[in-house]
Every structure is written in structure tokens, then in C-alpha cells.
């Protein structure tokens, strides 16, 4: 039986571990857990109306959104983990143009679902926390609770006899196989799959590979409300970086920042809190 090592247990690594056939492969997943983006992710799944000019990025994001819908069925994800409640887009101008863009992109991305321009009243009805304002709604938008996803998928992988080592891995080539070492373990593998995000860089540099991957810090604000029906609400993409993600049990998330200079600094900052609250305060019914 071939041995496969997966280094990185975020959304890509843990998903791959569950799709690989453990009757054909002996699989070990390594993940230190430090700075893992998926674990802290609120996960808006709604890439279709991005105006980024990078066509490769859009194709990757579009295909990823389509795959997530299949994944939810394949792995029987609960609504707590993956909720396809739609997306509301708020813009100060250009909603009609955005709706036209949505119709064009729906031709090769049917996952976008229904497209509807909403009145102020309709917007507030779909997401009661929002102040009345016109918006665009697409029914295919979703959210993914990263922490619950990882916990659930790890349980499935353990049932499939996937091995887990929760330590930092070092990779070396030894003749015709790979050697993966941690503080307390050393194993060999026929194939290695690296899904470690920005940690790919220090993993690959000793092997002579240079990759342009850098961490980006994202900060969120999480607060609790008495709105127990929040699990049914769509996410809202605001006209700035402060998106609104209704979660389970009345929890509401605002964010995230995109900080390229912070590197691996995981400490919350006053500046991020003030920026997120300032960018979002005018869209709520109650400050």
C-alpha cells in the first residue's frame, strides 16, 4: 500500500484526506495548528460578483464554490457547518450593473442561483439587522463555519483510518522516498502533498524551491444577539471590507481586515476594531 503524507490540515488538507481511498493508500496528515486560517474562518462563499481583473483567481474561486456545494452533499454537512442562505450585496451605486454582471456570469456558473434586485423593505426582511436600503440578492451564496468543518471532517477521517500527527513537520528527500520528521515522530512516504498555505515557503526552501506565498492577517469582530433565527439569514457583503456574517445561535460576525504587513502576529488590535466598527455602523438598524 502506498504511503501518502499530507502536510497542512486546513480546509484543503482535511478535505483531501477524506476523498482519498484509504483502501489503497496509507494516509498521514501533519498539522501543527498554529495560525491556521480555516479554524478562524467565517467563510463567505460568494465569489461570482468580484470585480478582480485576475481571471485565474476568479476561475479558481468560482470552481471552488461549485465544488463546495458537491462537498456538502458528499460529506453530509449540516446547516451549522455549511449554510446556503444566499448573499446580499450592498452598494451605494451600480446595483443594476452588478445584476447584469451576475446574469452574464451565471451562464458558466449556474451555482450563483436566483438573482434579484431587492427594495429597501425586501432587504430588511431578508436580514433584519440591516437598515432599509436597496440591494442585490443571489440565492447561491453560502457561509462555512471553519472550526466546525475541521472538527467534523477530522472525525470522518479518523473513521477512515487516516493518521494524524499534530506537530510541526520537516520534509527531506531520502533516495526514492520522502522523510517527514516532527519532534516525536519520523515516517517515510511515497508521495507528499503540501497544503500548508504560507508555511509552504519554509517547508520547501531547504529543498531548493522558492515560492511566493505570504501570510495575511484577518481580524473579525464577533458579538452575540438574541436573534436566534440568525442561522437562516443570508450573509451581507458591504461596500467596504466589513462584511456581515450571521452565524449560529444569534452570533454575528463582522470582518475581516486584510493586513499584509502583520505576518504571523495573531494579536487583535484596537485599530482593526475601530476600522471594522466605523465601516459597518451605518448599515445596521441599531448602532
What is the domain tally? 2
Q: Class of the largest domain in CATH?
A: Alpha Beta
What number is the mean pLDDT?
90
Whole-Å distance between the termini?
Answer: 60 Å
Question: What's the number of extended β-strand segments?
Answer: 17
Helices and strands: which structural class?
alpha/beta
H/E order of the elements? EHEEHEEHEHEEHEEEEEHEEEEH
CATH fold-level label of the largest domain: D-Amino Acid Oxidase, Chain A, domain 2
Helix content: 25-40%
Overall geometry comes to: elongated
Radius of gyration: 21 Å
If helices are DSSP runs of H or I spanning 4 or more residues, what is the number of helices? 7
**What is the topology, as strand order, of the major beta sheet?**
9-2-1-13
- What is the CATH architecture annotation of the largest domain? 2-Layer Sandwich
Low-confidence stretches: none
Q: Which percent range describes the beta-strand content?
A: 15-25%
Largest sheet: 4 strands, parallel
CATH superfamily of the largest domain: D-Amino Acid Oxidase, subunit A, domain 2
EC number: 1.-.-.-
Protein name: FAD-dependent oxidoreductase
Domain FAD dependent oxidoreductase: 3-284
GO molecular function: oxidoreductase activity
Lay out the secondary structure:
Blueprint: E1 2-7, H1 11-19, E2 25-30, E3 44-45, H2 55-74, E4 82-83, E5 87-89, H3 95-106, E6 115-118, H4 120-126, E7 135-138, E8 142-144, H5 146-159, E9 163-165, E10 170-174, E11 177-181, E12 186-189, E13 191-194, H6 200-204, E14 220-224, E15 235-237, E16 243-246, E17 251-255, H7 270-280
Parallel strand pairs: 1-2, 1-13, 2-9, 5-15
Antiparallel strand pairs: 3-8, 4-8, 5-7, 6-7, 10-11, 11-12, 14-17, 16-17
Helix pairs in contact: 1-5
Amino acid at each position: 500500500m502506498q504511503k501518502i503524507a499530507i502536510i497542512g490540515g486546513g480546509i484543503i488538507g482535511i478535505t483531501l484526506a477524506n476523498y482519498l481511498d484509504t483502501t489503497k493508500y496509507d494516509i498521514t496528515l501533519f498539522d501543527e495548528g498554529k495560525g491556521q486560517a480555516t479554524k478562524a474562518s467565517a467563510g463567505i462563499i460568494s465569489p461570482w460578483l468580484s470585480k478582480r481583473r485576475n481571471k485565474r483567481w476568479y476561475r479558481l474561486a468560482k470552481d471552488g464554490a461549485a465544488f463546495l456545494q458537491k462537498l456538502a452533499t458528499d460529506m453530509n454537512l449540516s446547516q451549522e457547518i455549511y449554510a446556503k442562505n444566499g448573499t446580499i450585496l450592498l452598494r451605494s451605486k451600480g446595483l443594476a450593473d452588478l445584476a447584469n454582471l451576475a446574469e452574464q456570469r451565471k451562464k458558466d456558473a449556474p451555482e450563483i442561483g436566483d438573482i434579484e434586485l431587492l427594495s429597501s423593505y425586501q432587504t430588511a426582511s431578508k436580514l433584519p439587522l440591516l437598515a432599509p436600503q436597496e440591494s442585490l440578492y443571489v440565492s447561491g451564496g453560502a457561509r462555512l463555519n471553519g472550526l466546525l468543518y475541521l472538527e467534523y471532517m477530522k472525525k470522518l477521517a479518523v473513521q477512515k483510518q487516516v493518521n494524524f500527527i499534530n506537530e510541526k513537520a520537516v520534509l527531506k528527500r531520502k533516495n526514492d522516498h520522502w522523510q517527514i520528521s516532527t519532534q516525536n515522530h519520523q515516517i517515510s512516504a511515497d508521495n507528499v502533498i503540501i497544503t500548508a498555505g504560507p508555511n509552504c515557503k519554509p517547508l520547501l526552501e531547504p529543498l531548493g524551491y522558492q515560492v511566493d506565498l505570504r501570510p495575511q492577517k484577518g481580524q473579525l469582530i464577533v458579538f452575540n444577539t438574541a436573534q436566534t433565527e440568525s442561522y437562516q439569514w443570508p450573509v451581507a457583503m458591504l461596500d467596504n471590507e466589513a462584511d456581515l456574517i450571521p452565524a449560529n445561535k444569534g452570533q454575528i460576525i463582522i470582518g475581516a481586515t486584510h493586513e499584509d504587513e502583520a505576518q504571523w502576529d495573531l494579536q487583535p488590535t484596537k485599530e482593526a476594531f475601530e476600522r471594522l466598527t466605523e465601516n459597518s455602523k451605518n448599515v445596521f438598524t441599531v448602532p
